[in-house]
């Protein structure tokens, strides 16, 4: 078991109120969480067995419920919506202490981070009072239903169609790359409700029950052997018109908020937590390359970029918790984590060479995952090219990239 920070170090800089809360967190974790066990440096963060993957999902969901029931979740959400009405420092203190334990909310924490602030900004009073407590407690587990086979980088070109029939939308179409959709009971879904206006203007943001008739989920096996991604098919699925966020045909601003939260989560949460520098240094030592000046420079670069990513992530996540505009555009985090992973994968391949493909031990499995992952992370959560466009336009105020499709009705656009 890893040793916990001593009391003096743990409370350095704490106010009396923060120190008191830290003691509450420690008491909760000691009573309910599993102390962190030392793991080898080459342990992978995914599983390839379907039963193990489902078990990990449900274990994370159960832990989120345990936290919620004990008053250790939803720190910055208002009390009337199931939160604690606290400050961002409550969440920071909790996370500092939780690092000493293996208990984690897993996947559900990502959709809480994406959907929670969006519900606060765009949800009706009834939706906030009804959905937020169920989201924060993981009573409802949500999946994201955005990308399509013909609308990934150009998400606004999506074709999944919703036609209004009285008080419901009838949805037909397909989504893809939907994490954990096979286990979630709800999803937030982008649909085209008006094909005769420019593509960004005819999109609606629906909240859908994944158990509704007409929904089929098919897992996709990835290059790593894991299968947490899915393709989801909709055949005459009926969704109440009231189960949406934002206006009909006005779902794009809602979508942008989710994607911004997703970029912050990827770069500032999961991305920052899994810096690769320590393992890259170990690889350089294993392969006798620590005196190579080119390798040494790459290691310095990896160390620096890991630290910068962590600092930026902390600043952005703090702003998100405060419901404030982030001081750094979230797109830069997604770009940064993508470039970090690309450089890490390239350095792994450089250090290991052909031997990185020949063996079947923990080290080479880690190398293989890092090399494969260098590509996938630049696609998931918004491609690097799209993120750079967002950064150029939103943060730098540069002219928008030329395009013929911004004022053209979606129905008149060419599509694959």
SSE diagram, text form:
Elements: H1 7-10, H2 16-32, H3 50-69, H4 88-98, H5 107-122, H6 125-136, E1 142-145, E2 161-165, E3 168-176, E4 186-192, E5 203-209, E6 215-220, E7 229-240, E8 244-245, H7 252-273, H8 277-286, H9 293-321, H10 330-352, H11 355-358, H12 362-376, H13 384-395
Helix pairs in contact: 2-4, 5-6, 5-7, 7-9, 7-10, 8-9, 8-10, 9-10, 10-12, 10-13
Outline the structure in words.
The chain is α+β, with helices and mostly antiparallel strands and 416 residues long. The protein has 3 domains: 7-140, Acyl-CoA dehydrogenase/oxidase, N-terminal domain (Butyryl-Coa Dehydrogenase, subunit A, domain 1, Orthogonal Bundle), CATH 1.10.540.10; 143-250, Butyryl-CoA Dehydrogenase, subunit A, domain 2 (Beta Barrel); 254-382, Butyryl-CoA Dehydrogenase, subunit A, domain 3, CATH 1.20.140. Helix content is 47%, strand content 12%. The protein has helices at residues 7-10, 16-32, 50-69, 88-98, 107-122, 125-136, 252-273, 277-286, 293-321, 330-352, 355-358, 362-376, 384-395, and strands at 142-145, 161-165, 168-176, 186-192, 203-209, 215-220, 229-240, 244-245. The chain has a 4-stranded mixed beta sheet with strand order 1-4-5-8, with helices on one face. A 4-stranded antiparallel beta sheet has the order 2-3-7-6, with no helix packed on it. The model is unreliable at 1-9 (pLDDT under 50).
Descriptors:
Butyryl-CoA Dehydrogenase, subunit A, domain 2; alpha+beta; globular; 416 residues; Butyryl-Coa Dehydrogenase, subunit A, domain 1; Butyryl-CoA Dehydrogenase, subunit A, domain 3; four-stranded mixed β-sheet; four-stranded antiparallel β-sheet
């Amino acid at each position: 078991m890893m040793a916990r920070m001593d009391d003096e170090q743990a409370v350095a800089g704490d106010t009396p109120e923060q120190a008191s809360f830290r003691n509450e967190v420690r008491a909760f974790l000691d009573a309910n969480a599993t102390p962190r066990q030392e793991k080898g440096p080459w342990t992978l963060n995914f599983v390839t067995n379907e039963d193990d993957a489902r078990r990990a999902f449900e274990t994370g969901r159960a832990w989120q419920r345990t936290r919620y029931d004990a008053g250790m979740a939803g720190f910055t959400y208002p009390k009337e919506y199931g939160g604690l009405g606290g400050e961002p420092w409550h969440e920071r203190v909790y996370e500092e202490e939780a690092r000493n334990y293996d208990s984690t909310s897993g996947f559900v924490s990502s959709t809480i981070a994406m959907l929670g602030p969006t519900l606060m900004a765009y949800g009706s009073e009834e939706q906030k009072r009804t959905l937020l407590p169920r989201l924060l407690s993981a009573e409802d587990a949500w999946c994201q239903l955005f990308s399509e086979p013909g609308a990934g980088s150009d998400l606004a070109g999506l074709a999944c169609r919703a036609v209004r029939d009285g008080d419901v939308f009838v949805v037909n179409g397909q989504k893809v790359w939907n994490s954990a959709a096979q286990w979630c009971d709800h999803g937030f879904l982008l649909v085209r409700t008006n094909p005769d206006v420019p593509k960004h203007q005819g999109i609606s943001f629906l909240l859908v029950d994944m158990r509704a008739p007409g929904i089929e989920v098919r897992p996709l096996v990835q290059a790593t052997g894991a299968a947490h991604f899915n393709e989801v098919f909709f055949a005459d699925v009926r969704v109440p018109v009231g189960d949406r966020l934002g206006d009909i045909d006005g779902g794009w601003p809602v979508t942008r908020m989710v994607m911004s939260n997703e970029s912050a989560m990827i770069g500032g949460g999961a991305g920052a937590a899994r810096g690769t520098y320590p393992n890259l240094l170990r690889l350089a030592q294993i392969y006798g390359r620590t005196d190579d000046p080119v390798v040494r420079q790459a290691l310095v670069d990896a160390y620096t970029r890991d630290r910068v990513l962590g600092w930026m992530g902390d600043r952005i996540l703090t702003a998100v918790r405060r419901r404030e505009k982030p001081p750094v555009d979230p797109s830069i985090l997604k770009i940064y984590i993508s470039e970090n992973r690309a450089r890490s994968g390239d350095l792994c391949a450089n250090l290991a060479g052909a031997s990185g493909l020949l063996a079947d031990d923990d080290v080479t499995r880690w190398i293989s995952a890092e090399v494969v992952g260098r590509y996938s992370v630049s696609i998931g959560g918004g491609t690097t090219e799209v993120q750079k466009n967002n950064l150029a336009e939103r943060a730098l105020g540069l002219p928008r990239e030329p395009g013929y499709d911004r004022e053209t009705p979606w129905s008149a656009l060419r599509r694959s």
